[in-house]
Amino acid sequence: xxxxxxxxxxxxxxxxxxxxxxxxxxxxxxxxxxxxxxxxxxxxxxxxxxxxxxxxxxxxxxxxxxxxxxxxxxxxxxxxxxxxxxxxxxxxxxxxxxxxxxxxxxxxxxxxxxxxxxxxxxxxxxxxxxxxxxxxxxxxxxxxxxxxxxxxxxxxxxxxxxxxxxxxxxxxxxxxxxxxxxxxxxxxxxxxxxxxxxxxxxxxxxxxxxxxxxxxxxxxxxx
Length: 223
Known about the structure:
Blueprint: E1 10-12, H1 13-20, H2 24-32, E2 42-44, E3 53-56, H3 57-72, H4 83-95, H5 99-122, E4 126-128, E5 131-135, E6 143-145, H6 146-153, H7 163-177, H8 182-199, H9 205-213
Antiparallel strand pairs: 1-3, 2-3, 4-5, 5-6
Helix pairs in contact: 3-4, 7-8, 8-9
C-alpha cells in the first residue's frame, strides 16, 4: 500500500535548508532515524539512491513545533513558539541536551542585554559588526569604543550609571561643549553642580541656581 503524500510546500534540499534554518546533515539525519517521515516530510523524485529529495517545509515546521513543545514541557494550550524560535531551540537542543534546563536564564540574559542597549541608545550609542561605541562627552564629534569606555572616562557603562555617574557625565558634556569659552564653561559647570546638589536636597541652593540661571554669561548655555 502506498503512503499518501501530504499537502504543503515541497522544495528541494538546498531551499529547504534556508527556509527551515537546518543544515543538510540535520535533515538527512532526521530522515534516516525516522523522525521525518516519507510521504509526509520528504519524498524522492526517482527510484535511485541518488535521486533528488523534496521536502515539505510546512510539515517539517509543524513537526519542529511539536518537538520544541515536548522538549520544553509545553502543553498544547500554551502559546506556540515562533518558527524562528522553534528552529533555534531545536538546533540548540541537538548541541546541548540540557538546553531547556537553562533556557529561562538565557532568556533573562537576552532581555537584560536588550534593556542595556536601550539605555545606551539614549546616550547616543551606536554599533555595527566592528563593535559598539559611544560619544565622547569631552570631545564633541568623537566616539569611544566600548572596549576603551571605562578606561578613558573612568565611568561605568550608561546602563550602570547611578545618580553621581549621570552628574559626572553631564559635567563632562558641559566641559566638552564649552571648552572654547572658559568663562561660559565655568558658569555652566557651577550651574550643573548647583542643580546636582539641589536635587540631593542641599539647603540654600535654590537661590544659587536662580542667580546662575539669570547670569548673562549663561544666555547661550542651552543653545
